[in-house]
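Re: How this chain folds, sequence and tokenised backbone to follow
How to read it: Take the token row as a discrete description of the fold.
Start of record: The labelled sequence and token lines come straight after this line.
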Amino acid sequence: MLVIILSFVLLAGNAYAAADDESLLLTAKEKYEKGRYASAIVDLNGLIVSPHSSYQSAARLLLGKCQYKLRKFKEAENTARNLIAKFPFSRYVPHAHYLTAEIVFKRKEYYDTAWHLLITAQTTFEEDLNYTAREKLAGVFGGYLDSSQQKALINWVECDDIRGELESIQRGYMPAVPIGVILDLSGTNAQNGQNLLLGIQAAKADAGKDVPGGIELVVRDGGGSVIQSVIAARELICNEKAAAIIVCLDAACTAAIAGVTSSEGVPLIVPTPQSADILELGDDVFQLLAGYKTEGKIAAEYVIADLEASRAAILAPVSEQGSQSVKGFASRFKELGGDAEVIQWYYSGATNYKRQLDKLIQIGADSLAATYELTDEDYEALLAWDDEPEEEEVKPEEGELEEEPSIVDSLLEVYVSPINFFDVLYVPFEGEEILLLAPQIAGSGFNGYFLGGSNCLDHVLDESNRRYVNGLIFPSHFSIPKGYSDNPSFAADFKSITRKMPDRWNLMGWDAFNYLALAFKGKGWLNSQRIKTRLQDVREFESERLEIRFPEGIRENQSMFILGFENGSFHTLKTPQ
């Protein structure tokens, strides 16, 4: 019994000691970050001499860093080498090699510097440390080692990627940075894919020329197939060593590729809006146009803040795009104090929307009947708002009093149709159904705010009788129809590169590459990690067609225009905030 009690006491004591050690290490880290290196050293030495501490290797690394900061280089080197010798399997050993490399570089021992950087790169599991060590290794290898030292060091290389980088430097040139591109280059969307590729190539010729070693575009065909797209992504990452990938495919293919790139830490540039929430797959995805859910939120914010509307009805397509638009609009509308509970759905390809519109009329009539306590007879009369009168109105004789209008007549005089109980009708059109749906909405008597989706920019002008879409309001990624650039000098420059005037798909590719090219600015070896880090720091970007606003921590563009269509032309009602 005594043995059991003693064992329990020892275990409890060790647990308390471990907690104290962890607290002491955290305190030392805090002091290090504040520049209090001498004070941190006192704490760390206490950890190191503790025989039962499980933080000895971590403490030694931080001790070496403190000594380095105090310019006690010999002590720092001894501490790092002691860590490597005593704890050869610690996860801090690669960091110790890196610290040693920094110290011996100051003594101009360049081969030893390169050797420690190589060991760091080949043994660490941390991406940041790996890329930093490889970048500095490339600099030391090419700038400080003679040919015999280079040859000797390459004999220690076990990683094929590092070997390829060093052999390229040995041959006298920097390797080009491979950028992957996956587009539909065959099938029904092949023409759009080819035009987008032309825009990427033109931007690369313009923006990629200042990158040391240059940029190499490695293009693959998605073919409209999820399997083919995933194979293309894996090939680009594993075989071609793509530092980033630009993809313009349908939602399913894009989401599948995003899963691959996120697992490998490769930045993915997506120039089109997405119905799926691909950003949840990882922090490596950069979506250059607002997704449909975000679009719905932006529409709701405009309705509440600028139109001062409070009741909305929704008529939406049964699709992922429609579902995301509705989810964004309804949730944000409700958050801002509005009511958007009434939703009617229609199937893609439908031509008759009478059932859905009649239901909205009925719901509006129900709400008016409840508000004004209508009788059943009045309610039926309200539903028959568009019936022709059965007999002509009899004017009163001279001297007779006019008959008081009924409550239904008064309501219809104000609302015209019960559907106008709603201030706003939100219809996130998928596309060409606007040609059929807009006239039927007009036939329902709706005369409130008619709110569409971003696809309206491409299809409103196709409406043969434009009076049905007069007054339509919608969020838009761009301020001009079809996305053409209205900058004549840019169009001339683009034509000088491609021998054609830019179209919307050319511009999409141009903008996608130029956004990626923001990561090419600055010194250092370009790799996936550095590109991702630099792009995460980008908050705003404007190009020929695109305006990007990335709030901190968000990698989906939150920038959209609000446009209105009036008297045959578009008008900007609100610019991106």
Q: What stands out?
A: Residues 1-17 have pLDDT under 50 and may be disordered.
